[in-house]
Design goal:
Alpha-D-Glucose-1,6-Bisphosphate, Chain A, domain 4, about 160 residues, 8 strands, eight-stranded antiparallel β-sheet, alpha+beta
């Protein structure tokens, strides 16, 4: 099953790409529903590099321990489209019922100059509980999408070229 968003962001594609590679943006757009903390490190890196990144996940403003998850990112480019892919998934806790996890975010130039088209898709399965989890993932994806859209206008300043 999947949840998917298609968003027009009010920032250039380079800024959106740098923002998606930032753990601080993940924490910003996930709160207060989910919070993430690095496992095995005192703090997150400035940006996600390719490879696994274990995190502790807490729900409902940090009140509920949801276990650990592996954010295992890879990057690729197809023409003018840049893609961040996460093939990680839950390691411990209640979400280990999820048996398949594939999260992709694709960034390309938007319809108007200086804007970005973001496609954000999560494919997952959890056996007979897949449909039940879909509603929770869908609700979270809506929140996360609104938070990304609200934050996008500041990405160009915050994530200036390296």
């Amino acid at each position: 099953m999947h949840v998917q968003l298609k968003l027009a962001l009010d920032c250039p594609p380079d800024a959106a790409w740098r923002a998606l590679r930032s753990p601080s943006v993940l924490t910003q757009v996930s709160a207060p529903f989910l919070t993430f903390e690095p496992v095995g490190s005192a703090r997150f890196p400035e940006r996600w590099d390719a490879g696994p990144h274990p995190v502790r996940v807490r729900a409902l403003g940090g009140l509920v321990d949801a276990g650990t998850q592996n954010i295992d990112v890879a990057f690729r480019t197809l023409g003018a489209v840049r893609i961040l892919e996460d093939h990680g998934g839950p390691l411990t806790g209640p979400l280990t019922i999820v048996t398949n996890w594939r999260h992709r975010m694709a960034v390309t130039a938007g319809a108007k100059p200086g804007t970005t088209l973001l496609r954000d898709r999560l494919e997952f399965s959890a056996g007979v509980l897949t449909a039940v989890l879909w509603l929770g993932f869908w609700l979270f994806w809506q929140w996360h999408g609104l938070a990304l859209a609200r934050s996008a206008s500041g990405f160009a300043r915050r994530f200036a070229a390296d």
